[in-house]
Every structure is written in structure tokens, then in C-alpha cells.
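We emphasize that the prediction below concerns an isolated chain of 343 residues; any contacts that depend on oligomerization or on bound cofactors are therefore not represented. The input was used exactly as deposited, without trimming of termini.
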Amino acid sequence: MKFNPFKVGRSLAVDLGTANTLVYIKGRGIVVREPSVVAIDKYNHKVLAVGNDADEMLGRTPENIAAIRPVQDGVIADIDITEAMMRRLIHLALGKKGTIFKPRVTVCVPTGITNVEKRAAVQALMLAGAKTVTLIEEPMAAALGAGIDVMRPEGNMIVDIGGGTCEMAVIALGGVVSSRSIKLAGGALNSSIINYIKHRYGLTIGDKTAEEIKLELGSAVPYENEGMYEVRGRDTATGLPKNISISATEVREAMADNIGLIIEEIRNTLGITPAELTADILKNGITLAGGGALIKNIDRAIEDAIGVPVRIAEEPLDCVVLGTELATENENILLRSPVARHG
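Result of the prediction step, given as a C-alpha cell string:
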């Protein structure tokens, strides 16, 4: 019988995202869902908190503490801090067993990342306690998690709008045929809301407040019963606390340019796709995954602009980690992935 390393020992599927990190264990499901945030003491570099505890510190830390995101635009920006974060999250997932039996880890990465960025992901996870690390392209994982049969000869398109990157890919016969990856996703939409409110109302708000506004009012096209949102922040002129009310129309206006750029990149991806597969996509439609898929009516905006049916995956926030887990049981998917196995 052929030896399969993924059938031996404990294995973890990891979605190491810019905004959140998810860990899946077969038979137990998603055991970790934490913000990708680490709080450190700036003077001695000691890790003070990880995940939810660190996220609560964002924008509220004293001078000696920094709450940072070690993953930027979908790739690791700081190996040491990512290692510390993943070490704690692996311990949270496995408990003491994780220190005795090192887990085999499969983690997704954006398409088009450099070899240096791939090595950074492997190094951080190996230092965090992994026995082996396998990389898989994020859109492939998202497609699997969305229930797409990636091994069929028919073309399917997946668009994964995450926190740091928007990944779009056409998949057929177990491989990525055409793809684009742009550093414009949920974080950029938050920034557009922050900038709009600052310039329109002279009010400074943080990223967490912008995220709340986006989730509450954000939309790509108008919808029924649009409401208002009371925003609390700091007056840029006086430095004093200030309240304003913002409408769904204003939030849509703030995000419009970035959503338009995402739609344009979807169109560009289709433009480099073989004609036969483009015909398949016209029939099968486009599948949306990631947190950005939850923006109200973004499916309608894409469908109207591209002229292709669009559906939102059943569990858009979990597609990548669910698909990463499915990939650990399908050597064909892993072997066909253009990124290497290590360990």
C-alpha cells in the first residue's frame, strides 16, 4: 500500500488570513476562529496576547504595547510574530497533544506569491510546531469549500474577497487555469469608509468602527429599508469626541470605487480565460466566497456588470478552511498545486 503522510498523525487545516485565522481538525470541525492580531510589549518584544484578546487592544494600547497584524495583504509580514501567534493557536486547537505529537499542517496562500513569501509561510509554521507544512492556493481551497467539483473538465470561477486580498480564479481539471490576485479587499473597503468620514465630516474613526459600519450598512447597489448608523469618533479639528449619523447611501458611495475595481479585475480574469471555459462559466456562473461576499447585493452588482450568473457560497467565511481540509484528503489536488510540500 502506498504511504500517505496525511493519514498518519494529527493534521490541521489552516486559513491564515489578514483579518482572521481559522483552524480545522477532522472530526471536530473549526476549532479556532480568532483575529490575526498579536499584542506585544515594544520594549522587550514579549507577546502579551493573541487573537480575540489582542484584537480588543487595537487602537487602545498604551505607549509600550503594540497590537499588530503580522499578516498583511494575505502574506506574512513578520515571521517571528506570526510564529508566536500560530504557536498559541495550535496549542489552543490541540492542547498539550500539540507539544507531544507535532501536527501536519496544510495552509492556503494567495496565487502569485513569491518563493520568498512561500518560504516565510512554511518557516513560520514549522517554527510554531508543525511537523510538515503543505501549501495550497487559496482560490482552489475556496472552490473546494464552496462545493465545486474542481476535478471536472468544466470551467468554474471562484472569487474570494478576503481581508487583505481578492483572489479570482478559473478552475478546471483540478488546476487553476487563469487567475488574478489583487491587494484590494475587505481592509481596503474599511479604509475607504474611514477616509470618506474623515473628509466629509472631519471625524476620525478606527478600523473596527469602519468594519461595523460596513457590515451594518455596506452595499454594492441600493436595497430596501436602508438605515442610518450612529458613528462615534474624534473631531479632527478639536480632538474632542463627536457623534455623527451616516446613511447607507454614503457608505455605498465610499466603497463604490473599490468595488468597481474588484469587478474590473473579475472581467480581466475572464478576458485571459480560454473561450471554451468562458462558455462554461456563462453556464455555471461565478461563486463568491470570503467576508466580502456578505456585502449586501454585491452578487447583483457583479452579475449586472459582467453578465454572468453569480451565487454566494453557503458558508462564505469558512470556505477556505473547509476546502483546505478537503485538500488534505485529496493528493491529486495537493500534487497539482504549483506550490511545494515541505517537511
